Amino acid sequence: MSYESMTIATPEASRKHRPAPAAEVSLTDEERREAARRKEIAETAKRASELDRELFGSILAAEAPAEALEKIETVESLTFGKEIDRKDVGEPGINAITRRVYEGDPPRIAYVKPQSGEARFVYHEQRRAVYQLTDVWDDAEQKFITNRKPLPKGEGASLELELKKRAAYKERIAQHYGIPVEEVPLSDTEVTARSSVDVGKGAIREYIASRVNELLRLDVIPMTVLRAEKGNVDLSSVQESVKSSDSENPARPPTDEELAEILKLGSAHPSARSLMRIACLDHLIKATDRHAKNILIDPVTRQTQGIDNGYSMGLSEGATGFPLISVALEAVQDHADWKLDDEALATMFELYESVKEYLREREEDVSKRRFGTGKEIKYLTGLFRLLYGSEQIAKKEALDFMVRLKEIIDLGRPPQMSKSQLWPIMEDLKVAKNVEN
Amino acid sequence: MKMIYYFPIDGDGNEIGDPIPVMLLADGTADLSRLPTELRKTLEAFGVPDALHRNAIFPKDGERFLDRLIEESNGYRRFRSTPEKR
After folding, report:
1. Which residues of B touch A119 (CB under 8 A)?
2. Which residues of chain B have pLDDT under 70?
3. ipTM value of the model?
């Protein structure tokens, strides 16, 4: 019997003294957990669709209706469109990424990553080893099969240390958000590659990065939606494929020489505009995985896009915390004259001012509110609530987001960061290519 | 000897041409000589992230490097353990 055909007895049915439907059965604990898991996936996908209507149908439609309509068409195609082609492009049992084509005008090509495929890690006390876990859906068994393998000695050392200090870490986070430590949405036993990023939410983070990109009209993250897989067995991020201007020269990560050139030329480089936009986005979404491989460059136009945003929007613990990792942020640090373009800056300024006015008027007197409905800050809070599940965390994150936005507006660029705030991953490249500060 | 394959793609993400083998040399390092120049340079300079995305694994790390190429494979940079195109 499949989960789709099962129904669960409800108090309402009992109260009406109607005989239970013939298909109703009592469930085991495992079946209940699975039903609850699928229900959460369905609700998350539904909430994401509601948020998309707010963003594209209301917020962006007011500023650029034609553009909003195009976005809506893309979102609809990726979220609900009929799948007309699918190819597993990853290694079976290890990497579940698929290339899919969805019906639309034109058809949309996308890369789909199931949330279940996200790697997570546990520490085995007795064996004193860190294990990597990934789940693969078994259609025949109608359940996930967990692959488990130990990390090579040395690779998991930092994580072992973090897991041992997990309790203290959660205390600091609880203090930062003003919530009881039991409400910190982090597992005690399983972690992702970033302590601040909880397991099982990779697809939602990808979605949020895309939506922040859309809200600010930065155009540096491919459109990404959340899609519930058939039967709600999994939630996937569906990201539209990055196209290059020349189909014979597909978009690809930059080479070391190209990055060295960017580091040398700064704002004079052809990639400067888009790379600065990525840098600003990375500051806003607290990116911790923007290695060179997660930037795609159009070999002809040199425009850049950011992909693989699953390690963003981690929980904060105040001033300290896991440093950001962003090649884009690092590149702009050494060139004080490298500024965000006027168009992007203007969009950020308008958003910030709109939110500030709404919050100010809300504090003064609700009855006299003349300025806007606060739709932007409400949207942002809703977006973060989807991820964290906590109203308190969502509100704090939305306000902190506005603080970071203000930093960019005031400086015309992201702020300068110390090595504890921004992990310098290009130091070796700078030395190798003799790139001077 | 362990061998994996790189699959070149076109602008629409279709796998084109022949898969390119990547194998270990006698000294245990990964042989990237047959890969497209840009990809080879990128991998030689930056390696591939380790499982925690904190440090890089390089061709000199041999089999671990090949394992990570497969685990980190995405739509734009595809590595698999068998040569069948998808």
Report:
1. 51, 71
2. 1
3. 0.95
